[in-house]
Design a protein that fits this description.
This protein is an alpha+beta fold. About 30% of the residues lie in helices and about 30% in strands.
């Protein structure tokens, strides 16, 4: 068994959709990024790559490569999962936490878990998505950014 952890943070900006785990979350701001900015998919992909000792998401999908401009991060995650499976790895479970002050994310957890389950081939009972705030502290607490931490088990 192997464990991988991933982390990502993106600035919140006006004029972009908020996408987490491949799900559009209604909100007045979205995540800045070269791709669609889906920090949840990015953190999970990084955790999988780390567990498999395959580098990181920036090596696989360079932020300066125009091929990935506006890319659907759920598709990038599917590519990582497929690559891990081709190397003989089996994803066991995902545990993640989204760190932001707003919007309230719990009403969207079922949709996000379903989306991630479909993208990874895991049952929804093996995909955990949680949210926390920073109690108003720092850039995240001031509503300037969203961060995500993810841990995966690979067998």
């Amino acid at each position: 068994m192997r464990v991988g952890n991933g982390f990502d943070v993106h600035r919140l900006v006006v004029g972009r959709p908020l996408i987490l785990g491949g799900v559009h979350i209604p909100f007045e701001m979205g995540l800045e990024g070269h791709s669609d900015g889906d920090a949840l998919c990015h953190a999970i992909a990084d955790a999988i790559l780390g567990a498999c000792a395959l580098g990181d998401i920036g090596q696989w999908f360079p932020p300066d490569d125009s091929l990935y401009e506006g890319a659907n991060s759920l598709e990038l995650l599917k590519t990582v999962v497929k690559s891990a499976k081709e190397r003989g790895f089996q994803l066991g479970n995902i545990d993640s936490v989204i760190i932001c002050e707003r919007p309230k994310l719990s009403p969207h957890f079922a949709s996000v878990r379903k989306s991630l389950s479909e993208a990874t081939g895991l049952g929804q009972d093996r995909v955990s998505v949680k949210a926390r705030t920073t109690e108003g502290l720092g850039a995240i607490g001031q509503g300037e950014a969203v961060a995500v931490e993810a841990v995966v088990l690979i067998e």
